[in-house]
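Researcher: Quick one. two chains, 450 residues in total.
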Amino acid sequence: MHLNRGFNRSITIFISLVIISSIMLLSNESFRATKEGTLTVFSLIQSGVSKTINFTSSTINSVGELRNLKNRYDLLNQELEQYRAINREFLEIKRENLEYKKLLDLKNNLSSKSITCEIVGKDPSNLSSAITISKGLKHGIKKNMPVVSEQNGLVGVVGKVISVGYQTSLVLPLLDQQSYLAGRLTESRYEGLVKGFDSINNYLELDYIKKIAENDISIGDLVETSGMKSLYPKGYYIGRIVEIKRVEYEPSLKIILQPIIDFSKLEYVSVILTEGAKNE
Amino acid sequence: MNKRNLFFFLSCSIVLLIIVIQSVVVPKFFNNEIMPDISLIAIIYFAVNYGKNVGQTFGFIQGIVLDSLSGVPFGLNALLRVIMGFLLGFFNGKIFLDKFVLPAFFVAICSFIKILLLALIVIIFPIKLNITIFSVKNIIEIGLNILLTPFVFAFFRFIDNKINISRDNT
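Model:
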Protein backbone atom coordinates (compact mmCIF):
# COMPACT_ATOMS: atom_id res chain seq x y z
CA MET A 1 0.00 0.00 0.00
CA HIS A 2 2.79 2.35 1.02
CA LEU A 3 4.81 1.38 -2.05
CA ASN A 4 1.80 1.93 -4.29
CA ARG A 5 1.27 5.39 -2.82
CA GLY A 6 4.89 6.19 -3.39
CA PHE A 7 4.71 4.89 -6.95
CA ASN A 8 1.61 6.95 -7.63
CA ARG A 9 3.35 10.00 -6.27
CA SER A 10 6.29 9.32 -8.56
CA ILE A 11 4.00 8.85 -11.53
CA THR A 12 2.19 12.09 -10.67
CA ILE A 13 5.44 13.99 -10.43
CA PHE A 14 6.68 12.37 -13.62
CA ILE A 15 3.55 13.21 -15.57
CA SER A 16 3.60 16.76 -14.21
CA LEU A 17 7.22 17.27 -15.16
CA VAL A 18 6.70 15.69 -18.58
CA ILE A 19 3.71 17.96 -19.21
CA ILE A 20 5.63 21.04 -18.09
CA SER A 21 8.60 20.05 -20.25
CA SER A 22 6.37 19.33 -23.21
CA ILE A 23 4.57 22.65 -22.86
CA MET A 24 7.94 24.38 -22.69
CA LEU A 25 9.05 22.50 -25.74
CA LEU A 26 5.89 23.21 -27.71
CA SER A 27 5.48 26.85 -26.78
CA ASN A 28 9.06 27.84 -26.90
CA GLU A 29 8.45 31.60 -27.17
CA SER A 30 6.28 31.74 -24.03
CA PHE A 31 9.16 30.52 -21.90
CA ARG A 32 11.72 32.81 -23.43
CA ALA A 33 11.80 34.93 -20.28
CA THR A 34 12.45 31.82 -18.15
CA LYS A 35 15.22 30.69 -20.47
CA GLU A 36 16.75 34.15 -20.52
CA GLY A 37 16.47 34.49 -16.74
CA THR A 38 18.17 31.16 -16.14
CA LEU A 39 20.76 32.02 -18.76
CA THR A 40 21.42 35.36 -17.05
CA VAL A 41 22.04 33.69 -13.72
CA PHE A 42 24.32 31.03 -15.13
CA SER A 43 26.00 33.36 -17.60
CA LEU A 44 27.25 35.30 -14.59
CA ILE A 45 28.93 32.13 -13.36
CA GLN A 46 30.17 31.42 -16.89
CA SER A 47 31.57 34.89 -17.16
CA GLY A 48 33.26 34.63 -13.77
CA VAL A 49 34.71 31.23 -14.61
CA SER A 50 35.85 32.45 -18.00
CA LYS A 51 37.58 35.45 -16.48
CA THR A 52 39.20 33.29 -13.82
CA ILE A 53 40.43 30.83 -16.43
CA ASN A 54 41.66 33.61 -18.66
CA PHE A 55 43.45 35.20 -15.75
CA THR A 56 44.97 31.89 -14.65
CA SER A 57 45.99 30.86 -18.15
CA SER A 58 47.38 34.29 -18.89
CA THR A 59 49.34 34.18 -15.63
CA ILE A 60 50.68 30.76 -16.52
CA ASN A 61 51.32 31.86 -20.10
CA SER A 62 53.04 34.98 -18.87
CA VAL A 63 55.79 32.82 -17.36
CA GLY A 64 56.51 31.37 -20.77
CA GLU A 65 55.94 34.78 -22.25
CA LEU A 66 58.55 36.19 -19.89
CA ARG A 67 61.04 33.62 -21.13
CA ASN A 68 60.19 34.57 -24.69
CA LEU A 69 60.49 38.21 -23.81
CA LYS A 70 63.87 37.61 -22.25
CA ASN A 71 65.08 35.90 -25.43
CA ARG A 72 63.56 38.64 -27.50
CA TYR A 73 65.11 41.24 -25.24
CA ASP A 74 68.54 39.67 -25.73
CA LEU A 75 68.04 39.55 -29.46
CA LEU A 76 66.87 43.15 -29.53
CA ASN A 77 69.82 44.15 -27.40
CA GLN A 78 72.14 42.58 -29.93
CA GLU A 79 70.29 44.34 -32.70
CA LEU A 80 70.46 47.58 -30.76
CA GLU A 81 74.23 47.19 -30.46
CA GLN A 82 74.44 46.66 -34.20
CA TYR A 83 72.30 49.72 -34.81
CA ARG A 84 74.39 51.72 -32.38
CA ALA A 85 77.49 50.74 -34.33
CA ILE A 86 75.72 51.68 -37.55
CA ASN A 87 74.64 54.95 -36.01
CA ARG A 88 78.19 55.71 -34.91
CA GLU A 89 79.35 54.93 -38.42
CA PHE A 90 76.55 57.07 -39.82
CA LEU A 91 77.48 60.02 -37.61
CA GLU A 92 81.09 59.63 -38.61
CA ILE A 93 80.13 59.52 -42.28
CA LYS A 94 77.83 62.49 -41.78
CA ARG A 95 80.60 64.43 -40.16
CA GLU A 96 83.00 63.44 -42.92
CA ASN A 97 80.39 64.42 -45.46
CA LEU A 98 80.11 67.82 -43.84
CA GLU A 99 83.84 68.18 -43.95
CA TYR A 100 83.90 67.16 -47.61
CA LYS A 101 81.18 69.67 -48.35
CA LYS A 102 83.22 72.38 -46.71
CA LEU A 103 86.22 71.27 -48.68
CA LEU A 104 84.21 71.28 -51.86
CA ASP A 105 83.09 74.81 -51.10
CA LEU A 106 86.68 75.68 -50.35
CA LYS A 107 87.82 74.08 -53.58
CA ASN A 108 85.23 76.06 -55.49
CA ASN A 109 86.31 79.21 -53.70
CA LEU A 110 89.97 78.70 -54.42
CA SER A 111 91.15 80.57 -57.47
CA SER A 112 93.90 78.03 -58.18
CA LYS A 113 93.58 74.33 -58.77
CA SER A 114 93.95 72.34 -55.63
CA ILE A 115 94.05 68.81 -54.25
CA THR A 116 92.12 67.88 -51.18
CA CYS A 117 94.04 65.77 -48.70
CA GLU A 118 93.33 64.18 -45.39
CA ILE A 119 95.70 64.59 -42.49
CA VAL A 120 96.93 61.12 -41.79
CA GLY A 121 99.69 61.71 -39.29
CA LYS A 122 101.82 63.99 -37.25
CA ASP A 123 105.53 64.18 -36.73
CA PRO A 124 106.44 61.21 -34.57
CA SER A 125 109.70 62.74 -33.38
CA ASN A 126 108.02 65.67 -31.62
CA LEU A 127 110.84 67.81 -32.89
CA SER A 128 108.64 69.71 -35.29
CA SER A 129 104.96 70.25 -35.70
CA ALA A 130 104.93 68.83 -39.23
CA ILE A 131 101.88 66.93 -40.37
CA THR A 132 101.51 64.14 -42.90
CA ILE A 133 98.86 64.46 -45.62
CA SER A 134 97.35 61.66 -47.65
CA LYS A 135 98.52 62.79 -51.10
CA GLY A 136 101.96 62.75 -52.60
CA LEU A 137 103.95 62.67 -55.81
CA LYS A 138 101.50 60.28 -57.35
CA HIS A 139 98.78 62.90 -57.03
CA GLY A 140 100.84 65.81 -58.33
CA ILE A 141 101.98 67.29 -55.03
CA LYS A 142 105.27 69.13 -55.18
CA LYS A 143 107.56 70.58 -52.56
CA ASN A 144 106.75 74.13 -51.34
CA MET A 145 103.17 74.00 -52.51
CA PRO A 146 100.99 76.09 -50.18
CA VAL A 147 98.48 74.27 -48.04
CA VAL A 148 95.23 75.94 -47.03
CA SER A 149 92.01 75.03 -45.31
CA GLU A 150 88.66 76.54 -44.45
CA GLN A 151 87.31 77.16 -40.99
CA ASN A 152 84.44 79.36 -39.89
CA GLY A 153 83.91 80.59 -43.40
CA LEU A 154 87.47 81.85 -43.83
CA VAL A 155 90.10 80.24 -46.01
CA GLY A 156 93.28 80.25 -44.05
CA VAL A 157 96.87 79.25 -44.61
CA VAL A 158 97.90 75.95 -43.02
CA GLY A 159 101.51 75.81 -44.14
CA LYS A 160 103.58 74.46 -46.99
CA VAL A 161 104.68 71.13 -48.32
CA ILE A 162 108.21 70.47 -47.20
CA SER A 163 108.66 66.92 -48.29
CA VAL A 164 106.89 64.81 -50.90
CA GLY A 165 106.60 61.05 -50.85
CA TYR A 166 104.94 58.89 -53.47
CA GLN A 167 101.72 58.47 -51.52
CA THR A 168 102.00 61.06 -48.76
CA SER A 169 103.57 64.43 -48.12
CA LEU A 170 104.84 66.33 -45.15
CA VAL A 171 103.47 69.77 -44.41
CA LEU A 172 105.16 72.32 -42.20
CA PRO A 173 102.46 74.30 -40.43
CA LEU A 174 102.59 78.05 -40.03
CA LEU A 175 103.01 77.59 -36.31
CA ASP A 176 106.37 75.97 -36.69
CA GLN A 177 109.20 78.31 -35.90
CA GLN A 178 110.83 77.47 -39.19
CA SER A 179 107.86 78.93 -41.09
CA TYR A 180 107.98 82.33 -42.72
CA LEU A 181 105.59 84.02 -45.08
CA ALA A 182 104.76 87.49 -46.26
CA GLY A 183 101.64 88.90 -44.71
CA ARG A 184 99.55 92.02 -45.04
CA LEU A 185 96.99 93.62 -42.77
CA THR A 186 93.68 93.33 -44.57
CA GLU A 187 92.36 96.74 -43.48
CA SER A 188 95.41 99.00 -43.27
CA ARG A 189 97.41 97.17 -45.97
CA TYR A 190 100.68 97.30 -44.01
CA GLU A 191 103.00 94.48 -44.91
CA GLY A 192 105.15 92.36 -42.70
CA LEU A 193 106.64 88.94 -42.15
CA VAL A 194 104.70 86.26 -40.36
CA LYS A 195 106.59 83.52 -38.58
CA GLY A 196 105.89 80.73 -36.18
CA PHE A 197 106.11 82.00 -32.65
CA ASP A 198 104.59 79.63 -30.19
CA SER A 199 103.54 76.29 -31.59
CA ILE A 200 102.44 75.10 -28.16
CA ASN A 201 100.00 77.94 -27.55
CA ASN A 202 99.25 78.36 -31.25
CA TYR A 203 100.50 81.90 -31.84
CA LEU A 204 102.17 83.60 -34.78
CA GLU A 205 104.25 86.73 -34.87
CA LEU A 206 103.98 89.51 -37.40
CA ASP A 207 107.21 91.49 -37.73
CA TYR A 208 108.38 94.52 -39.62
CA ILE A 209 105.20 96.56 -39.22
CA LYS A 210 106.38 100.13 -38.69
CA LYS A 211 105.46 101.95 -35.53
CA ILE A 212 103.61 104.60 -37.49
CA ALA A 213 101.03 101.99 -38.31
CA GLU A 214 100.10 101.71 -34.65
CA ASN A 215 97.15 104.04 -34.94
CA ASP A 216 95.79 102.24 -37.97
CA ILE A 217 95.78 98.79 -36.58
CA SER A 218 93.82 97.28 -33.76
CA ILE A 219 93.17 94.02 -31.99
CA GLY A 220 91.07 91.68 -34.11
CA ASP A 221 92.39 92.90 -37.45
CA LEU A 222 92.91 90.21 -40.01
CA VAL A 223 96.21 89.43 -41.67
CA GLU A 224 96.33 87.80 -45.10
CA THR A 225 98.95 86.61 -47.53
CA SER A 226 100.41 89.45 -49.56
CA GLY A 227 101.50 87.36 -52.50
CA MET A 228 104.65 89.40 -52.79
CA LYS A 229 107.66 87.27 -53.61
CA SER A 230 106.06 84.37 -51.85
CA LEU A 231 104.97 80.90 -52.73
CA TYR A 232 101.60 81.66 -51.12
CA PRO A 233 99.05 83.18 -53.44
CA LYS A 234 97.58 86.52 -52.45
CA GLY A 235 94.50 86.88 -50.27
CA TYR A 236 94.52 83.81 -47.98
CA TYR A 237 93.97 84.63 -44.35
CA ILE A 238 96.77 83.98 -41.92
CA GLY A 239 95.52 85.17 -38.56
CA ARG A 240 93.94 87.78 -36.38
CA ILE A 241 95.75 90.29 -34.17
CA VAL A 242 95.48 89.41 -30.50
CA GLU A 243 98.27 91.58 -29.13
CA ILE A 244 100.27 94.60 -30.27
CA LYS A 245 103.60 95.25 -28.53
CA ARG A 246 105.62 98.38 -28.86
CA VAL A 247 109.29 97.89 -28.03
CA GLU A 248 111.12 101.16 -27.57
CA TYR A 249 114.44 100.12 -28.97
CA GLU A 250 112.98 98.46 -32.05
CA PRO A 251 111.75 100.34 -35.10
CA SER A 252 108.81 98.07 -35.72
CA LEU A 253 105.88 96.75 -33.73
CA LYS A 254 105.71 93.27 -32.40
CA ILE A 255 102.27 91.89 -33.28
CA ILE A 256 100.99 88.58 -32.01
CA LEU A 257 98.49 86.75 -34.19
CA GLN A 258 96.10 83.94 -33.57
CA PRO A 259 96.00 81.74 -36.67
CA ILE A 260 92.74 81.59 -38.60
CA ILE A 261 93.10 77.84 -38.65
CA ASP A 262 92.64 75.95 -35.42
CA PHE A 263 95.22 73.25 -35.97
CA SER A 264 93.78 71.00 -33.30
CA LYS A 265 90.56 70.68 -35.34
CA LEU A 266 92.22 70.24 -38.67
CA GLU A 267 91.33 67.09 -40.58
CA TYR A 268 91.35 68.00 -44.26
CA VAL A 269 93.50 70.44 -46.15
CA SER A 270 93.85 71.64 -49.72
CA VAL A 271 97.18 71.77 -51.47
CA ILE A 272 97.22 74.57 -54.03
CA LEU A 273 98.84 73.49 -57.26
CA THR A 274 101.05 76.47 -57.93
CA GLU A 275 103.39 76.55 -60.92
CA GLY A 276 107.09 76.25 -60.24
CA ALA A 277 106.55 75.68 -56.56
CA LYS A 278 109.41 73.26 -56.37
CA ASN A 279 111.84 75.88 -57.54
CA GLU A 280 111.00 78.44 -54.91
CA MET B 1 16.60 22.19 5.40
CA ASN B 2 17.14 18.58 6.46
CA LYS B 3 20.23 16.55 5.62
CA ARG B 4 18.61 14.83 2.68
CA ASN B 5 17.45 18.04 1.01
CA LEU B 6 20.76 19.66 1.76
CA PHE B 7 22.53 16.78 0.05
CA PHE B 8 20.36 16.99 -3.05
CA PHE B 9 20.58 20.75 -3.22
CA LEU B 10 24.33 20.64 -2.76
CA SER B 11 24.81 17.86 -5.31
CA CYS B 12 22.55 19.55 -7.83
CA SER B 13 24.37 22.85 -7.40
CA ILE B 14 27.75 21.18 -7.76
CA VAL B 15 26.69 19.38 -10.92
CA LEU B 16 25.30 22.58 -12.38
CA LEU B 17 28.46 24.39 -11.48
CA ILE B 18 30.53 21.67 -13.12
CA ILE B 19 28.39 21.90 -16.26
CA VAL B 20 28.85 25.65 -16.40
CA ILE B 21 32.60 25.37 -15.78
CA GLN B 22 32.80 22.60 -18.34
CA SER B 23 31.03 24.78 -20.92
CA VAL B 24 33.73 27.40 -20.45
CA VAL B 25 36.80 25.24 -19.92
CA VAL B 26 36.43 22.62 -22.65
CA PRO B 27 36.24 25.01 -25.62
CA LYS B 28 39.35 26.77 -24.34
CA PHE B 29 41.53 23.68 -24.24
CA PHE B 30 40.04 21.23 -26.74
CA ASN B 31 39.21 21.71 -30.37
CA ASN B 32 36.47 19.13 -30.86
CA GLU B 33 34.23 20.64 -28.14
CA ILE B 34 32.61 17.28 -27.40
CA MET B 35 31.89 17.22 -23.70
CA PRO B 36 31.02 14.38 -21.37
CA ASP B 37 27.45 14.40 -20.06
CA ILE B 38 28.18 14.85 -16.35
CA SER B 39 24.54 15.67 -15.77
CA LEU B 40 23.48 12.25 -17.08
CA ILE B 41 26.04 10.48 -14.89
CA ALA B 42 24.70 12.39 -11.88
CA ILE B 43 21.11 11.54 -12.79
CA ILE B 44 22.07 7.85 -13.03
CA TYR B 45 23.72 7.98 -9.63
CA PHE B 46 20.82 9.75 -7.93
CA ALA B 47 18.03 7.82 -9.67
CA VAL B 48 19.61 4.42 -8.99
CA ASN B 49 20.53 5.30 -5.40
CA TYR B 50 17.60 7.48 -4.35
CA GLY B 51 14.70 6.55 -6.58
CA LYS B 52 12.45 7.99 -9.24
CA ASN B 53 11.41 11.21 -7.50
CA VAL B 54 14.93 12.34 -6.84
CA GLY B 55 16.07 11.16 -10.28
CA GLN B 56 13.38 12.94 -12.26
CA THR B 57 13.49 16.14 -10.17
CA PHE B 58 17.23 16.17 -10.49
CA GLY B 59 16.87 15.55 -14.23
CA PHE B 60 14.31 18.33 -14.62
CA ILE B 61 16.48 20.95 -12.92
CA GLN B 62 19.57 19.89 -14.83
CA GLY B 63 17.59 19.92 -18.05
CA ILE B 64 16.24 23.43 -17.51
CA VAL B 65 19.74 24.78 -16.94
CA LEU B 66 21.15 22.90 -19.90
CA ASP B 67 18.34 24.21 -22.09
CA SER B 68 19.11 27.75 -20.97
CA LEU B 69 22.78 27.40 -21.71
CA SER B 70 22.37 25.61 -25.02
CA GLY B 71 20.77 26.52 -28.31
CA VAL B 72 18.27 23.67 -28.33
CA PRO B 73 14.53 24.37 -27.90
CA PHE B 74 13.72 25.16 -24.29
CA GLY B 75 12.37 22.07 -22.55
CA LEU B 76 14.10 19.45 -24.67
CA ASN B 77 16.75 18.55 -22.13
CA ALA B 78 14.25 18.90 -19.30
CA LEU B 79 11.91 16.38 -20.91
CA LEU B 80 14.73 14.04 -21.84
CA ARG B 81 16.26 14.04 -18.39
CA VAL B 82 12.93 13.75 -16.58
CA ILE B 83 12.23 10.59 -18.56
CA MET B 84 15.77 9.29 -17.97
CA GLY B 85 15.51 10.04 -14.23
CA PHE B 86 12.14 8.36 -13.97
CA LEU B 87 13.15 5.25 -15.91
CA LEU B 88 16.45 4.89 -14.07
CA GLY B 89 14.56 5.18 -10.83
CA PHE B 90 13.16 1.72 -11.49
CA PHE B 91 16.63 0.30 -10.86
CA ASN B 92 16.67 1.77 -7.38
CA GLY B 93 17.37 -1.01 -4.92
CA LYS B 94 17.54 -3.58 -7.69
CA ILE B 95 21.13 -3.27 -8.82
CA PHE B 96 24.29 -2.58 -6.95
CA LEU B 97 26.74 -0.24 -8.62
CA ASP B 98 30.33 -1.10 -7.74
CA LYS B 99 33.19 1.35 -8.15
CA PHE B 100 34.25 0.88 -11.77
CA VAL B 101 32.87 -1.78 -14.10
CA LEU B 102 29.13 -1.74 -13.56
CA PRO B 103 28.76 2.06 -13.36
CA ALA B 104 30.79 2.40 -16.56
CA PHE B 105 28.70 -0.24 -18.31
CA PHE B 106 25.48 1.28 -17.02
CA VAL B 107 26.49 4.76 -18.10
CA ALA B 108 27.42 3.50 -21.59
CA ILE B 109 23.98 1.91 -22.00
CA CYS B 110 22.23 4.99 -20.61
CA SER B 111 24.19 7.30 -22.89
CA PHE B 112 23.06 5.30 -25.87
CA ILE B 113 19.46 5.21 -24.62
CA LYS B 114 19.61 8.96 -24.15
CA ILE B 115 20.46 9.38 -27.83
CA LEU B 116 17.63 7.04 -28.83
CA LEU B 117 15.23 8.90 -26.58
CA LEU B 118 16.38 12.20 -28.02
CA ALA B 119 15.72 10.91 -31.53
CA LEU B 120 12.28 9.82 -30.41
CA ILE B 121 11.45 13.22 -28.87
CA VAL B 122 12.61 14.93 -32.05
CA ILE B 123 10.22 12.69 -34.01
CA ILE B 124 7.27 13.28 -31.66
CA PHE B 125 7.68 17.00 -31.14
CA PRO B 126 7.96 19.50 -33.96
CA ILE B 127 11.63 20.23 -33.33
CA LYS B 128 14.13 20.95 -36.05
CA LEU B 129 17.12 19.07 -34.74
CA ASN B 130 19.45 16.80 -36.66
CA ILE B 131 20.05 13.68 -34.57
CA THR B 132 22.36 10.96 -35.85
CA ILE B 133 22.23 7.90 -33.63
CA PHE B 134 25.45 6.29 -34.81
CA SER B 135 28.06 9.00 -35.12
CA VAL B 136 31.64 9.54 -34.05
CA LYS B 137 30.51 12.42 -31.85
CA ASN B 138 28.18 10.12 -29.94
CA ILE B 139 30.87 7.45 -29.57
CA ILE B 140 33.33 10.01 -28.19
CA GLU B 141 30.70 11.31 -25.78
CA ILE B 142 29.91 7.78 -24.56
CA GLY B 143 33.66 7.13 -24.16
CA LEU B 144 34.12 10.31 -22.13
CA ASN B 145 31.13 9.44 -19.98
CA ILE B 146 32.58 5.98 -19.27
CA LEU B 147 35.93 7.54 -18.32
CA LEU B 148 34.39 10.10 -16.00
CA THR B 149 31.84 7.88 -14.31
CA PRO B 150 34.11 6.37 -11.61
CA PHE B 151 35.24 9.84 -10.57
CA VAL B 152 31.75 11.36 -10.49
CA PHE B 153 30.38 8.37 -8.59
CA ALA B 154 33.29 8.48 -6.15
CA PHE B 155 32.69 12.18 -5.58
CA PHE B 156 28.98 11.70 -4.79
CA ARG B 157 29.74 8.70 -2.65
CA PHE B 158 32.17 10.83 -0.69
CA ILE B 159 29.56 13.56 -0.04
CA ASP B 160 26.97 10.89 0.64
CA ASN B 161 29.15 9.32 3.31
CA LYS B 162 29.98 12.67 4.85
CA ILE B 163 26.35 13.73 5.17
CA ASN B 164 25.23 10.12 5.86
CA ILE B 165 21.64 10.39 4.68
CA SER B 166 19.07 7.61 4.61
CA ARG B 167 18.05 5.98 1.32
CA ASP B 168 14.46 6.20 0.18
CA ASN B 169 13.15 3.40 -1.99
CA THR B 170 10.54 5.10 -4.14
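The radius of gyration of chain A is 45 Å.
Researcher: Thanks, that's what I needed.
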